[in-house]
Specification:
Elements: H1 2-20, H2 27-34, H3 36-47, E1 51-56, E2 62-67, E3 71-82, E4 85-92, H4 102-116, H5 130-133, H6 151-154, H7 184-197, H8 200-213, H9 215-228, H10 232-247, E5 252-253, E6 260-261, H11 266-277, H12 281-301, H13 307-325, H14 330-343, H15 354-357, H16 363-379, H17 389-408, H18 415-426, H19 429-438, H20 442-456, H21 461-477, H22 481-494, H23 498-510, H24 514-527, E7 532-537, E8 540-545, H25 575-584, H26 588-602, H27 620-628, H28 633-647, H29 653-672, H30 676-689, H31 694-704
Antiparallel strand pairs: 1-2, 2-3, 3-4, 5-6, 7-8
Helix pairs in contact: 2-3, 3-4, 8-9, 10-11, 10-12, 11-13, 12-13, 14-16, 16-17, 17-18, 18-19, 19-20, 19-21, 20-21, 21-22, 22-23, 23-24, 25-26, 25-27, 26-27, 27-28, 28-29, 29-30, 29-31
Length: about 725
């Protein structure tokens, strides 16, 4: 008995020393190791009770089984603490495999919760079969043993059922696979050896039993027999049946639980390849139009991040290989490929058409294609009230192919008329103007650009804006700097920004009127008064120009009419742009001045302070505080504290992180003015007021550098939860 007591005491002391290695672990260590997303998912796993049979080895390694989509074996170990914190290493049988998967995080979280609650951790057995599952040469496909989990802990009602007595089995060694476990290569060798050892009658009987059991094998033999008998029509009919079956399935994925379905095109591709191999390219091509139509419709309705499209693409490659070998004329091959492109709205075809569209054809072949496309275009009419984007887009795509065919046929002189007609039919003025510029027909390009702006400004302002940029580029190429500056001024006064101001000044300097334009731009930012106004009276727009404005006023730069709101009659200053300019020029005092004016202008307007402290992008308030932290620390603290106060009432994770960021930035400022204790009091006050927000408390734990073992326990006795 004394010997037994000694044997049990030694592992306990060893385990205590191993457990102490984890005491210094912080949430920051865990986040840097696995990433915040994996930490969050791992914590959810642990809270759901999926960590089973947790054990602690003498050397400090954790060993556990985690129930995910499958049963995974995990081990996690600590390394020496570096300047960046405690380092961890893990191995898991999940697809991620190495460091930082959610199963490893769940294992660590479960261990820390048990130790925080002073619950004993079982010692890991060196002969535990799970060690073998983590070895490099372990083959999961060869594992014939059931997971040795504690059934009572997995299923609370298991004790209500009669239990079958289990015979003890020899456990796997920690250092290698258990005897009887084979690698895939070993299995292949033994299976082949067994097949070779059988006689012909034995093999025939074995194959027949497989044909009866597996429908796929029966179908394979049926295909072989049909092809041997020359029954191609039967194979075509079976192929069409398979095509309609697979294209009727929809692909989907559930990103929450990892479930989903992707239609398998393997059988269809196999049948198509068989037809091609046996020289029946024409029969295969005849199936192409229906496959393209049904497949594209299927891809459009599926929600699986392109998995279904990839499956379809593999079959279409076979179809286009068959086109090249078919009896179709060269012009028909090109038209087949063009028709496929016109139906492909999801980039399914990829490089499949290269062998057809990249091939060299005589000009008369392309001329035939152009004539047939021209007839199709003439039949495609668009009503004056047609607003459907898809109809116009399809017509533009068709006309693009016609223009390509004309160019390849040496009939480029006919292109201009098509460009002009289609510009008015579908609003494709950009394409026309670009073509005219490339042809060095600048005057015509300017005329069409002006017409395009007039026609699209109200309903398609994006096209009008693009045409303006083209006109600006033309002026820049011709070094008409006053026109370029007028474009920049129109953009700046319509949507003032720091970038727009820089663009305006660069163009104005080239136009030799930099000082004049700068003064007008600054006056506009401070007062909101524009040097060029567009006033609408009784449906007519008049242009009112400041007599001191030096740049040309271009009629096509008139802004798009506003819809849904009345035009502003009172000029509004743009103090935020002046503030950004001061920050960019590293003038902190000016930045603070404009910031204070902004705050004063917003009083009584109902604008919340939190709107000054943006979500994601670094806000103006934070930038000002950072700029004046050295010269005006008290003002910097005031700005940060107002931002903190605006976010504290919000009970969600993004707000918690924003609050922690404010506290983090205030800490060195408090230290610099010898008020470090005030920062501690501030954090303590926040903790006291919002102690009922466990995820917020964990973020503060990380901010203060507390270890996970030091965190407060929840009312249930567990660690504070994220």
């Amino acid at each position: 008995m004394a010997r037994q007591s000694s044997a049990t005491k030694e592992p306990k002391n060893t385990q205590s020393a191993a457990s102490s290695q984890w005491a210094a672990l912080t949430w920051k260590d865990l986040d840097e190791w696995a990433g915040s997303r994996s930490v969050e998912r791992g914590r959810r796993y642990q809270r759901n009770g999926v960590v089973k049979n947790l054990a602690l080895a003498d050397d400090g390694r954790l060993l556990a089984t985690v129930i995910g989509t499958k049963k995974y074996t995990v081990t996690v170990a600590t390394e020496a603490k570096s300047a960046r914190g405690l380092k961890l290493q893990s191995t898991c049988t999940c697809p991620v495999g190495s460091d930082g998967c959610k199963h490893a995080v769940a294992t660590v979280a479960e261990f820390l919760q048990l130790t925080a609650n002073e619950k004993p951790i079982p010692a890991a057995d060196p002969n535990d079969q799970r060690w073998a599952k983590l070895s490099a040469d372990y083959d999961p496909e060869a594992d014939e043993e059931e997971e040795d989990l504690d059934r009572a802990s997995d299923d609370s009602c298991a004790s209500n059922w009669p239990q079958v007595a289990r015979h003890p089995t020899k456990q796997k060694s920690r250092t290698g696979p258990q005897k009887g476990t084979r690698t895939r290569a070993k299995w292949d060798e033994q299976i082949r050896s067994q097949i070779d050892s059988k006689s012909r009658p034995e093999l025939a009987l074995l194959v027949w039993s497989f044909v009866e059991r597996f429908p796929e094998l029966r179908a394979e033999f049926q295909e072989r027999i049909a092809l041997a008998e020359g029954d191609v029509q039967r194979l075509v009919a079976d192929t069409k049946k398979e095509m309609r079956k697979v294209t009727a399935e929809l692909g989907w994925q559930n990103h929450w639980d990892g479930g989903g379905h992707t239609p398998s095109y393997d059988r269809l591709k196999h049948r198509l390849e068989r037809l091609l191999e046996l020289g029946h390219a024409d029969e295969l091509v005849a199936l192409g139009p229906e496959l393209i139509e049904r497949g594209m419709a299927q891809v459009g309705q599926s929600h699986d991040e392109g998995e279904t499209a990839m499956e379809l693409s593999g079959c279409l490659e076979v179809v286009f290989q068959a086109i090249v070998k078919s009896s179709l004329a060269a012009s028909d091959q090109i038209l087949f490929a063009i028709n496929a492109c016109l139906q492909d709205g999801y980039d399914v075809l990829g490089e499949s058409l290269g062998d057809i569209l990249d091939a060299e054809y005589a000009s008369d072949v392309w001329s035939c294609v152009a004539d047939r496309l021209s007839k199709r275009l003439q039949k495609t009419t668009i009503r004056q009230d047609e607003r459907s984007f898809s109809v116009k887009y399809h017509r533009d795509q068709l006309s693009n192919w016609l223009l390509t065919a004309l160019e390849n046929a040496g009939r480029g002189s006919e292109a201009s008329a098509i460009y002009e007609a289609e510009a008015r039919a579908t609003g494709s003025y950009e394409r026309l103007v670009k073509y005219l510029i490339e042809q060095q027909r600048i005057e015509e390009a300017e005329q069409w650009a002006r017409e395009g702006i007039e026609q699209t400004l109200a309903k398609l302002p994006g096209i009008a804006s693009s045409l303006r940029r083209m006109l600006c580029d033309v002026a820049r190429c011709q070094k008409q700097w006053d026109v370029v500056a007028a474009h920049a001024a129109a953009a700046f006064f319509e949507q003032p920004s720091l970038h727009g101001f820089k663009e305006l000044m660069a163009a104005a300097e080239e136009a030799k009127c930099g000082e004049h334009v700068r003064a007008a731009a600054l006056q506009f930012l401070e007062t909101g008064k524009k040097p060029v106004l567009y006033v609408t009276r009784k449906g007519q727009t008049e242009t009112v120009v400041d007599p001191n404005w030096i740049l040309p006023v271009l009629d096509y730069l008139m802004p798009a009419p506003r819809t849904g709101s009345a035009p502003q009659s009172v000029p509004v200053p743009h103090l935020n742009v002046l503030l950004e300019m001061a920050l960019a020029a590293k003038r902190p005092d000016d930045a603070l001045k404009w910031f204070d004016k902004m705050a004063a202008s917003q009083k009584g307007t109902g604008v919340r302070w939190s709107s000054w402290h943006g979500y994601g992008v670094r806000s103006l308030g934070e930038q000002v505080a950072a700029a004046v932290a050295a010269s005006r620390p008290e003002r910097a603290l005031e700005i940060y504290q107002r931002g903190l106060a605006s976010r504290l009432p919000e009970a969600h994770f993004a707000a918690y992180e924003a609050c922690a960021e404010y506290l983090k930035k205030m800490r060195p400022i408090f230290s610099a003015i010898h008020r470090a204790e005030d920062w501690q009091k501030l954090v303590a006050g926040v903790r006291q007021k919002y102690a009922n927000r466990p995820r917020f408390m964990e973020i503060l734990d990380k901010l203060e550098g507390r270890t996970i073992r030091q965190t407060q326990k929840s009312p249930r006795g567990g660690l504070a939860r994220r």
